[in-house]
Amino acid sequence: MASEEASAKKIIAGDKYRSFLHDEENNIQWRHGGPPTYDDEWPKGSLEEIVQNAIKSWEMELSHKTRREGLSAEETLKIGSYNALLKNSLPKEFQYYKADEETFESSHEIFRSAFPRGFAWEVLHVYSGPPLISYKFRHWGFFEGPYKGHAPTGELVQFFGFGTLKVDESLRVEDVEVYYDPAELMAGLLKGQSLSEHSSAAASLSCPFSKLTTK
């Protein structure tokens, strides 16, 4: 038991992206049993690394914690990041993703299924540093799993966007604004053939002799 606790403390101490988030470790409830991990992508101490630190910390809290001290955006936490970012006011018949019909869990399961190897997010350029950060980002992954009735294509699906974050001295996010075209994402996902059509096509190509019977 002692060795397990020591290993856990070592992992937390080495997690530079969310070191301050473990101050209240005993009060945190995680959705998937523990905090996520992120790999280094920018040189240590660079402005890009600082910005990526702040944004991934915010996303981690939003997507992985079931309880968060001092939370003011309860609705965002409840519906999840995908639903919050894909929610729109278009008529239902024109909505390619109906956020109102998805829960936090179902929305994340949809994209975990579509991108089994992960749906990566990265900072491409930083225009201004804290306390008001502005940046360009890319979200990308390989469409290798089904998406809402559409077969995977195996192709790269990605979209680009811009965002601003207002942060405090500890890089805790106080306000977020994200600007992007969700059609970039959905165009790649809806490109996959309908699974019902795919099944029908496969059936039509089956061996004709398999249906013959002998008398």
UniProtKB/TrEMBL annotation:
This is Pathogen-related protein-like. It comes from Ziziphus jujuba var. spinosa. SUPFAM superfamilies: NTF2-like (SSF54427). It comes from the Eukaryota.
